Inverse folding.
């Protein structure tokens, strides 16, 4: 499969690149995608939620009223979960939400996500470029060239480029990621995936190794 290479001003070049069929043109596996996105989202959770249970509330342990003869339901101390200000019954506790996912499943999911992007024609290959200095206005102009100023975009670079990162970080829907860190959630979350020409080889090596 061949794709045209674009310049960063949105114009086409005379060059084309051949995409690896095993990475960008497989039969997508939806269940693998589901598992990898679930794995990513679970790892983002802090798991620090906490409420106080009955034994952690400060208060008297005196029985509020006698057990029988009042005509009302029996009740214990003022820390009871059924009373306002009492402890929480079965409330959330700090926990780790992360879980193990096999590397093969992750790679299959990422290849599937990339294949979906190619099928929907939302994957573009760009010539390598950078800026002389961090300029948000310049990066915004780059996005406008591809009609992405108000859409979610993900630019895949071969290695960390601080100039590009600093130029894009004030644009809410623009993201930049290193090829080796590419994940299923970010691929699918972006309206359009932009890959620098030199990043293709690293993406293919990462997902086929």
């Amino acid at each position: 499969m061949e794709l045209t290479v674009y310049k960063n001003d949105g114009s086409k070049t005379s060059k084309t690149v051949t995409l690896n069929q095993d990475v960008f043109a497989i039969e997508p596996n939806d269940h693998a995608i589901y598992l990898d996105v679930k794995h990513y989202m679970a790892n983002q959770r802090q798991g620090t939620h906490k409420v106080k249970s009955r034994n952690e509330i400060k208060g008297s342990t005196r029985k509020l009223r006698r057990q029988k003869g009042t005509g009302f339901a029996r009740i214990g101390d003022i820390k009871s979960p059924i009373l306002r200000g009492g402890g929480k019954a079965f409330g959330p506790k700090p926990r780790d939400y992360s879980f193990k996912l096999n590397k093969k499943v992750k790679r299959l999911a990422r290849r599937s996500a990339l294949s979906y992007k190619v099928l929907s024609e939302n994957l573009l290959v760009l010539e390598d470029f950078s800026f002389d200095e961090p300029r948000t206005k310049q990066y915004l102009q780059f996005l406008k060239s591809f009609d992405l100023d108000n859409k979610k975009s993900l630019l895949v670079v071969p290695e960390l480029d601080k100039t590009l990162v600093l130029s894009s970080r004030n644009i809410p829907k623009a993201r930049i990621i290193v090829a080796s860190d590419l994940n299923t959630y970010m691929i699918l979350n972006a309206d359009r995936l932009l890959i620098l020409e030199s990043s293709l080889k690293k993406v293919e090596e990462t997902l086929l190794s």
The mean pLDDT is 94. Residues 51-91 form one domain.
